[in-house]
Amino acid sequence: MPVRPPAPLTTARLLRRTLRRHRGRLAGGVALLSLHQAAEAAVPLAIGLIVEQAVATGELSALVWSVVGLAALFTVLTFAWRFGARLTEAAIHSETHQLRVEVAARALDPRGHRSGLRSGELLAIAAADAERTALIIRASTVAVAALAALAVASVVLLTIDVALGLGVLLGVPALVTALQALAPVVTRRTADQQAAAGATTALATDLVTGLRALRGLGAVDNAARRYRDSSRHTLAVTLRATTMSGVYQGITAGASGLFLAAVAGVAGWMAIRGRISIGEFITVVGLAQFVAEPVRALGFCGQLAAAVWASAGRVARVLTASPAVVPGQRTPARPARVRLALAGVSYRSLRDVDLRLHAGELLAVVAHEPRDAEALLDLLRGRVPADDHRGTVTVDAVPVSDLSIDALRTQVLVEPHDTALFEGTLRSNLLVHSAGPGPAAVPADAADPRLAAAITAACADDIVGLHPGGLDHPVTDRGASLSGGQRQRIGLARALVADPPILVLHDPTTAVDAATEQRLAAGLRAARHGPDRPDDPAAPATLVVTSSPTLLAQADRVLVLAAGQVVGSGSHQDLARTDESYRAAVLR
Fold first, then answer.
1. Res 215: pLDDT
2. pLDDT tens digits, residue range 366-393?
3. Which residues contact 16 (CB under 8 A, 6 or more apart)?
């Protein structure tokens, strides 16, 4: 029989899966917490019996045994709650961790995703929504324990008086059902609040990431105003959600109080009429007061379930997002003379672009419009689905869409303009590729000559020598402890250490001074295409997207993009002499 594909992970299925994969702890927690609530419900009954059997009769032995029994009841009550809560909390924290791992894995999936969420929103989902989704475990255990308490209380009340017991049995469900009518409103308000908070978090992440650029453009005030507006909107939405939550809690507390008063009043009338004894009256009043607790607990569960449902929907949105790119399974059989090729490619602002990067070649691309450069780099990263562009992109004669992720990453390394450094040391950042497969793997030894050569070629030796720790000098998250130029040089050195067959660089010298740029350009040329590099199809190829005349002068060939099309090709010197627009764009 054919195997059915798994059903899509809806919000309801996500919550059911959460409960299923912790069913052992959940069952233990439910049993112990239900025992705790049953023992709580038995306390008024025990006090009523003590009054009738010991206090009213004046028998000392009965009083002693009653006290011992009450102590045993409280012992069971205490330990059942302690261990039941421990099991429940362990399940909640375990599920929170598992959901965060799943969300993080989906967010970091090299195939990308079509969730439509920004990095800050994904961070909010992984941090807050994953934790809130796991609270379905608490809502479930508390609800079952509350129902167990109501069941015990109802049985005792039915035993004392059928009419009174039926009143509780019918009144409680009616009360809970009425309270649940407000749950959808709480869910909507909570979902709006979470979405607004996620958007504000995403904006904050973007602003912090681009703070240096904003300062350079003098746009800090505009950015702060935009964040302030977003924060105020989030505050307003949060206040509306909190107000609705408070209204819900107030109605729940008020309704349970009125229910308590009604039950106590009826029981008092019955005691006056002689239908129940004093001990039974005490039991009924105690149970009526106790019943308010599980009723409030059920109301809390309804409110919590509303928040859980909203968060689970956001988590499910991430986990069910389809991949942006569906990679193939092929690996290039052998290096081709043309290492990288674009044939008739149209994507976003690009129109019918043809590009050939030959083995051993250093090719520079000058894009008059930044959007053309970004579109080209996205294509070379393999982030663009085959259906989203026209034409073909091949690596060693194999279409990028047919390559496996590992094969593409092994063959092509795109070093972005905004260099991403990680918390650790200079050494750990430079050797980040050392564990990878294929040509990118290098010994994780600081004395390796390739590492020293890469540091020198990227003009990063002064960064290493500047600090007593050398390569062991600490680096903060995103390289905040380094200047922009230092980050760029460390990023370039890291790319040179990896030594990929095809290296793509985007503006690698925008934050360095002219003298350093001159040495860096020569070092890049020597490291990637020096005399010791063999002239064969396996020779590495380099593509640099830049407008730096120093880098352009080192290129074997320059390709010019304008309005999304290739409008020129040749050496830097020839283009600077014959193309006025090129000369205006690159000469400074």
1. 63
2. 998 888 999 999 888 887 888 888 999 9
3. none
pLDDT > 60? residue 197: yes
In contact, 362 and 554? CB cutoff 8 Å? yes
More reliable by pLDDT, 244 or 138: 138
Cβ-contact 366, 408 below 8 angstroms: no
Q: Residues of 445-484 as b/e, b for ≥16 C-beta within 10 angstroms? A: ebeeeebebbbbbbbbeebbeeeeeebebebeebbeebeb
DSSP run (H or E) holding 198: helix 183-209
Cα distance between residue 392 and residue 458, in whole Å: 33
CB atoms within 10 A of CB 176: 22
Give the contacts of 320 (CB within 8 A, at least 6 positions apart).
8, 9
Report the C-alpha gap between 375 and 377 in whole angstroms. 6
Mean pLDDT score across all residues of the chain: 81
- Total number of residues shown for the chain: 588
Lowest-confidence pick of 258-272, 400-414, 418-432, 483-497: 258-272
| Of 396, 417, 420, 378, the residue nearest 502 (C-alpha) | 396
- Return the number of other C-beta atoms located less than 10 Å from residue 505's C-beta: 25
Task: In whole angstroms, give the CA distance from residue 315 to residue 132.
Answer: 10
* Residue 569, Ramachandran bin (φ over 0: left; ψ between -120 and 50: alpha; else beta): beta
Nearest to 303 by CA among 235, 252, 353: 252
pTM above 0.90, yes or no: no
- pLDDT one-digit tens code per residue, 143-177: 999 888 888 888 887 888 888 777 776 776 677 66
User: From CA 527, how far away is CA 505, in angstroms rounded?
Assistant: 14
What is the mean predicted confidence (pLDDT) over 64-76? Answer: 80
The residues with which 425 forms a beta bridge, in sequence order, are 474
Per DSSP, 366 falls in state E
**Mean pLDDT of all residues in 179-205:** 73
The phi and psi torsions of 295 (rounded to 5 degrees) equal -65, -45
C-alpha 74/C-alpha 80 separation (Å) is: 10
